[in-house]
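Fill in residues.
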Protein backbone atom coordinates (compact mmCIF):
# COMPACT_ATOMS: atom_id res chain seq x y z
CA UNK A 1 0.00 0.00 0.00
CA UNK A 2 1.39 3.42 -0.94
CA UNK A 3 1.94 6.17 1.58
CA UNK A 4 -0.73 8.23 -0.22
CA UNK A 5 -3.29 5.47 0.30
CA UNK A 6 -2.42 5.34 3.98
CA UNK A 7 -2.94 9.07 4.50
CA UNK A 8 -6.09 10.11 6.41
CA UNK A 9 -9.14 10.75 4.26
CA UNK A 10 -10.30 14.32 3.72
CA UNK A 11 -12.02 15.82 6.82
CA UNK A 12 -10.58 13.11 9.08
CA UNK A 13 -8.69 14.61 12.03
CA UNK A 14 -6.27 12.19 13.71
CA UNK A 15 -5.75 12.42 17.44
CA UNK A 16 -2.26 13.75 18.03
CA UNK A 17 -0.64 13.87 21.45
CA UNK A 18 1.16 17.06 22.47
CA UNK A 19 3.88 14.79 23.90
CA UNK A 20 4.55 13.45 20.39
CA UNK A 21 4.70 16.98 19.01
CA UNK A 22 7.11 18.05 21.72
CA UNK A 23 9.40 15.12 20.89
CA UNK A 24 9.09 15.93 17.18
CA UNK A 25 10.11 19.58 17.65
CA UNK A 26 13.10 18.65 19.78
CA UNK A 27 14.31 16.09 17.22
CA UNK A 28 13.87 18.67 14.46
CA UNK A 29 15.79 21.26 16.48
CA UNK A 30 18.70 18.97 17.38
CA UNK A 31 18.77 16.92 14.20
CA UNK A 32 19.10 13.74 16.23
CA UNK A 33 17.20 11.49 18.60
CA UNK A 34 20.14 11.58 21.00
CA UNK A 35 20.11 15.37 21.38
CA UNK A 36 16.34 15.44 21.78
CA UNK A 37 16.51 12.70 24.42
CA UNK A 38 19.14 14.64 26.36
CA UNK A 39 16.99 17.81 26.36
CA UNK A 40 13.79 15.98 27.28
CA UNK A 41 15.42 13.78 29.91
CA UNK A 42 14.19 10.64 28.14
CA UNK A 43 15.94 7.62 26.66
CA UNK A 44 16.74 7.64 22.96
CA UNK A 45 14.43 4.68 22.41
CA UNK A 46 11.58 6.57 24.09
CA UNK A 47 12.05 9.51 21.70
CA UNK A 48 12.18 7.17 18.72
CA UNK A 49 8.99 5.47 19.90
CA UNK A 50 7.15 8.83 20.19
CA UNK A 51 8.19 9.82 16.66
CA UNK A 52 7.11 6.46 15.24
CA UNK A 53 3.74 6.77 16.97
CA UNK A 54 3.28 10.29 15.60
CA UNK A 55 4.14 9.16 12.09
CA UNK A 56 1.58 6.37 12.40
CA UNK A 57 -1.11 8.75 13.61
CA UNK A 58 -0.48 11.05 10.66
CA UNK A 59 -0.84 8.32 8.08
CA UNK A 60 2.49 6.57 8.12
CA UNK A 61 4.54 9.03 6.06
CA UNK A 62 8.03 9.40 7.59
CA UNK A 63 8.77 12.75 9.23
CA UNK A 64 12.54 12.22 9.30
CA UNK A 65 15.04 10.51 7.07
CA UNK A 66 17.17 8.31 9.32
CA UNK A 67 20.80 9.01 8.36
CA UNK A 68 24.02 7.30 9.50
CA UNK A 69 24.64 10.33 11.69
CA UNK A 70 21.41 11.91 12.95
CA UNK A 71 18.17 12.59 11.10
CA UNK A 72 16.86 15.06 8.55
CA UNK A 73 13.30 16.40 8.08
CA UNK A 74 11.36 14.96 5.16
CA UNK A 75 8.94 17.11 3.17
CA UNK A 76 6.14 15.90 5.47
CA UNK A 77 8.24 16.86 8.47
CA UNK A 78 8.90 20.35 7.09
CA UNK A 79 5.15 20.85 6.60
CA UNK A 80 4.44 19.73 10.16
CA UNK A 81 7.01 22.00 11.88
CA UNK A 82 5.08 25.32 11.81
CA UNK A 83 1.86 23.61 12.88
CA UNK A 84 3.58 21.86 15.78
CA UNK A 85 5.19 25.16 16.79
CA UNK A 86 1.78 26.87 16.71
CA UNK A 87 0.32 24.17 18.98
CA UNK A 88 3.25 24.49 21.39
CA UNK A 89 2.94 28.28 21.48
CA UNK A 90 -0.81 28.08 22.02
CA UNK A 91 -0.35 25.69 24.93
CA UNK A 92 2.34 27.94 26.39
CA UNK A 93 -0.04 30.91 26.21
CA UNK A 94 -2.81 28.86 27.82
CA UNK A 95 -0.56 27.81 30.70
CA UNK A 96 0.53 31.42 31.20
CA UNK A 97 -3.06 32.67 31.28
CA UNK A 98 -4.17 29.89 33.62
CA UNK A 99 -1.26 30.67 35.94
CA UNK A 100 -2.23 34.35 35.92
CA UNK A 101 -5.82 33.38 36.69
CA UNK A 102 -4.77 31.18 39.58
CA UNK A 103 -2.40 33.79 41.01
CA UNK A 104 -4.92 36.64 40.40
CA UNK A 105 -2.34 38.44 38.26
CA UNK A 106 -4.64 38.40 35.25
CA UNK A 107 -8.12 37.39 34.14
CA UNK A 108 -11.28 39.38 34.69
CA UNK A 109 -13.76 40.36 37.38
CA UNK A 110 -17.35 41.35 36.55
CA UNK A 111 -19.45 42.57 39.43
CA UNK A 112 -22.45 44.73 40.18
CA UNK A 113 -23.69 46.65 43.22
CA UNK A 114 -26.75 48.59 44.33
CA UNK A 115 -26.43 52.36 44.55
CA UNK A 116 -25.79 52.92 48.26
CA UNK A 117 -23.15 50.19 48.34
CA UNK A 118 -21.34 52.36 45.80
CA UNK A 119 -21.30 55.23 48.31
CA UNK A 120 -18.56 53.71 50.44
CA UNK A 121 -18.31 49.94 50.65
CA UNK A 122 -17.59 49.15 47.01
CA UNK A 123 -15.11 51.99 46.35
CA UNK A 124 -13.11 51.06 49.44
CA UNK A 125 -13.00 47.39 48.43
CA UNK A 126 -12.22 48.18 44.80
CA UNK A 127 -9.33 50.49 45.73
CA UNK A 128 -7.71 47.71 47.80
CA UNK A 129 -8.35 45.12 45.07
CA UNK A 130 -6.78 47.37 42.41
CA UNK A 131 -3.68 47.83 44.57
CA UNK A 132 -3.25 44.10 45.08
CA UNK A 133 -4.30 42.87 41.63
CA UNK A 134 -3.75 45.67 39.14
CA UNK A 135 -3.67 43.35 36.12
CA UNK A 136 -7.16 41.95 36.58
CA UNK A 137 -9.61 43.51 34.13
CA UNK A 138 -12.53 44.81 36.21
CA UNK A 139 -15.98 45.78 34.93
CA UNK A 140 -18.71 47.09 37.23
CA UNK A 141 -22.44 47.66 36.94
CA UNK A 142 -24.87 49.56 39.16
CA UNK A 143 -28.49 48.57 39.54
CA UNK A 144 -31.31 47.49 41.80
CA UNK A 145 -30.94 44.13 43.52
CA UNK A 146 -33.51 42.26 41.34
CA UNK A 147 -31.80 43.46 38.15
CA UNK A 148 -28.35 42.52 39.44
CA UNK A 149 -29.57 39.04 40.33
CA UNK A 150 -30.96 38.59 36.82
CA UNK A 151 -27.60 39.60 35.39
CA UNK A 152 -25.90 37.14 37.73
CA UNK A 153 -28.20 34.31 36.67
CA UNK A 154 -27.59 35.06 33.00
CA UNK A 155 -23.83 34.78 33.52
CA UNK A 156 -23.08 38.45 32.84
CA UNK A 157 -21.76 39.00 36.38
CA UNK A 158 -19.47 36.92 38.58
CA UNK A 159 -20.67 38.51 41.81
CA UNK A 160 -23.30 41.05 42.90
CA UNK A 161 -23.51 43.18 46.05
CA UNK A 162 -27.20 43.08 46.95
CA UNK A 163 -29.52 43.83 49.86
CA UNK A 164 -32.69 42.43 51.36
CA UNK A 165 -34.62 45.56 50.32
CA UNK A 166 -37.02 44.88 47.49
CA UNK A 167 -38.07 41.31 48.36
CA UNK A 168 -35.79 39.77 45.71
CA UNK A 169 -35.60 35.92 45.77
CA UNK A 170 -32.23 35.78 47.50
CA UNK A 171 -32.65 32.16 48.57
CA UNK A 172 -31.92 31.06 45.00
CA UNK A 173 -28.30 32.28 45.29
CA UNK A 174 -25.18 31.64 47.32
CA UNK A 175 -25.16 34.50 49.85
CA UNK A 176 -22.01 35.73 51.55
CA UNK A 177 -22.98 38.04 54.42
CA UNK A 178 -21.13 41.36 54.43
CA UNK A 179 -22.94 43.53 56.98
CA UNK A 180 -26.24 44.57 58.55
CA UNK A 181 -27.44 48.11 58.05
CA UNK A 182 -29.24 50.28 60.53
CA UNK A 183 -31.24 53.31 59.40
CA UNK A 184 -31.08 57.05 59.92
CA UNK A 185 -33.75 59.63 59.28
CA UNK A 186 -32.49 62.70 57.46
CA UNK A 187 -34.09 65.94 58.59
CA UNK A 188 -33.63 69.66 57.92
CA UNK A 189 -31.29 71.40 60.38
CA UNK A 190 -34.25 73.39 61.73
CA UNK A 191 -36.38 70.28 62.33
CA UNK A 192 -37.14 69.59 66.03
CA UNK A 193 -35.49 66.15 65.78
CA UNK A 194 -32.21 67.74 64.63
CA UNK A 195 -31.40 68.40 68.29
CA UNK A 196 -32.64 65.02 69.53
CA UNK A 197 -30.16 62.90 71.43
CA UNK A 198 -30.21 59.17 70.76
CA UNK A 199 -32.31 57.04 68.42
CA UNK A 200 -35.97 57.77 67.65
CA UNK A 201 -38.93 55.61 66.76
CA UNK A 202 -40.23 56.17 63.27
CA UNK A 203 -43.70 56.56 64.74
CA UNK A 204 -42.73 60.12 65.81
CA UNK A 205 -42.64 60.96 62.11
CA UNK A 206 -45.96 59.37 61.17
CA UNK A 207 -47.39 62.75 60.10
CA UNK A 208 -44.30 63.92 58.20
CA UNK A 209 -43.90 64.35 54.47
CA UNK A 210 -41.53 61.69 53.21
CA UNK A 211 -39.09 61.71 50.35
CA UNK A 212 -38.65 58.25 48.81
CA UNK A 213 -37.63 56.53 45.61
CA UNK A 214 -41.12 55.07 45.21
CA UNK A 215 -44.66 56.26 45.88
CA UNK A 216 -45.30 52.95 47.63
CA UNK A 217 -43.33 52.01 50.75
CA UNK A 218 -43.48 48.26 50.08
CA UNK A 219 -40.13 46.87 49.00
CA UNK A 220 -38.26 50.04 50.00
CA UNK A 221 -36.55 51.23 53.17
CA UNK A 222 -39.93 52.61 54.25
CA UNK A 223 -40.97 49.01 54.93
CA UNK A 224 -39.59 49.86 58.39
CA UNK A 225 -42.44 52.35 58.86
CA UNK A 226 -45.02 49.73 57.92
CA UNK A 227 -43.51 47.41 60.52
CA UNK A 228 -43.90 50.15 63.11
CA UNK A 229 -47.59 50.54 62.42
CA UNK A 230 -48.05 53.49 60.06
CA UNK A 231 -48.14 54.13 56.35
CA UNK A 232 -45.84 57.03 55.49
CA UNK A 233 -47.11 59.84 53.27
CA UNK A 234 -44.72 60.05 50.33
CA UNK A 235 -44.81 63.68 49.23
CA UNK A 236 -41.92 63.56 46.77
CA UNK A 237 -40.68 60.62 44.68
CA UNK A 238 -36.96 61.14 44.15
CA UNK A 239 -34.60 58.42 42.93
CA UNK A 240 -31.06 59.67 43.54
CA UNK A 241 -29.55 60.04 47.02
CA UNK A 242 -28.01 63.42 46.26
CA UNK A 243 -31.38 64.74 45.09
CA UNK A 244 -33.15 63.36 48.17
CA UNK A 245 -30.70 65.25 50.37
CA UNK A 246 -31.46 68.43 48.43
CA UNK A 247 -35.17 68.05 49.17
CA UNK A 248 -34.46 67.42 52.84
CA UNK A 249 -32.11 70.41 53.06
CA UNK A 250 -34.85 72.58 51.54
CA UNK A 251 -37.28 71.52 54.28
CA UNK A 252 -39.59 69.65 51.90
CA UNK A 253 -39.70 66.47 53.96
CA UNK A 254 -37.68 63.76 55.67
CA UNK A 255 -36.00 60.68 54.24
CA UNK A 256 -34.55 57.40 55.41
CA UNK A 257 -30.82 56.97 54.90
CA UNK A 258 -29.17 53.53 55.14
CA UNK A 259 -25.93 53.15 57.07
CA UNK A 260 -23.85 52.69 53.90
CA UNK A 261 -24.86 56.16 52.69
CA UNK A 262 -24.52 57.91 56.06
CA UNK A 263 -20.91 58.90 55.50
CA UNK A 264 -21.72 60.85 52.35
CA UNK A 265 -24.57 63.03 53.65
CA UNK A 266 -24.22 66.77 53.05
CA UNK A 267 -23.47 69.01 56.05
CA UNK A 268 -26.80 70.94 55.97
CA UNK A 269 -28.73 67.72 56.66
CA UNK A 270 -28.98 66.13 60.09
CA UNK A 271 -29.01 62.38 60.59
CA UNK A 272 -30.92 60.91 63.50
CA UNK A 273 -30.51 57.17 64.19
CA UNK A 274 -33.67 55.10 63.97
CA UNK A 275 -34.42 52.80 66.88
CA UNK A 276 -34.03 49.23 65.64
CA UNK A 277 -37.12 47.31 66.64
CA UNK A 278 -37.04 43.74 65.47
CA UNK A 279 -33.51 43.81 64.11
CA UNK A 280 -31.56 45.77 61.51
CA UNK A 281 -33.44 47.29 58.58
CA UNK A 282 -31.62 45.26 55.99
CA UNK A 283 -28.72 42.92 55.37
CA UNK A 284 -26.14 43.31 52.64
CA UNK A 285 -24.67 40.30 50.85
CA UNK A 286 -22.31 39.39 48.07
CA UNK A 287 -24.36 37.04 45.92
CA UNK A 288 -22.95 34.41 43.58
CA UNK A 289 -24.72 31.96 41.30
CA UNK A 290 -25.43 28.66 43.00
CA UNK A 291 -23.53 25.76 41.45
CA UNK A 292 -21.16 28.04 39.52
CA UNK A 293 -17.50 28.18 40.53
CA UNK A 294 -16.23 31.58 41.58
CA UNK A 295 -13.03 32.59 39.80
CA UNK A 296 -9.89 33.28 41.86
CA UNK A 297 -10.35 37.00 41.14
CA UNK A 298 -13.96 36.79 42.33
CA UNK A 299 -12.94 34.95 45.49
CA UNK A 300 -10.28 37.56 46.22
CA UNK A 301 -12.73 40.43 45.65
CA UNK A 302 -15.19 38.75 48.02
CA UNK A 303 -12.47 38.64 50.69
CA UNK A 304 -11.68 42.32 50.10
CA UNK A 305 -15.39 43.20 50.35
CA UNK A 306 -15.50 41.53 53.75
CA UNK A 307 -12.45 43.50 54.85
CA UNK A 308 -14.07 46.76 53.75
CA UNK A 309 -17.40 45.85 55.39
CA UNK A 310 -15.66 45.25 58.72
CA UNK A 311 -14.30 48.80 58.57
CA UNK A 312 -17.56 50.59 57.70
CA UNK A 313 -18.23 53.01 60.60
CA UNK A 314 -22.04 52.98 60.48
CA UNK A 315 -22.69 49.31 59.79
CA UNK A 316 -22.45 46.03 61.67
CA UNK A 317 -20.30 43.44 59.89
Amino acid sequence: MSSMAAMPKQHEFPEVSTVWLRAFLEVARHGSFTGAARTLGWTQSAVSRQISTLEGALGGAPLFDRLPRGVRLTEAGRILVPHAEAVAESLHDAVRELTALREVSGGRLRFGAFATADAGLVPQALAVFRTRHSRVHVTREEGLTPVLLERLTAGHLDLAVVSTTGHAPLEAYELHHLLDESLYVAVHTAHPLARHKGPVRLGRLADADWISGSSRPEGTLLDAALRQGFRPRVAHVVGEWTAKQGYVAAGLGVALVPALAAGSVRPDVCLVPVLDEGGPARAVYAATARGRSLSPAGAEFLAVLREAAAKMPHAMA
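Residues 3-102 form a domain with the Arc Repressor Mutant, subunit A fold (CATH 1.10.10.10).
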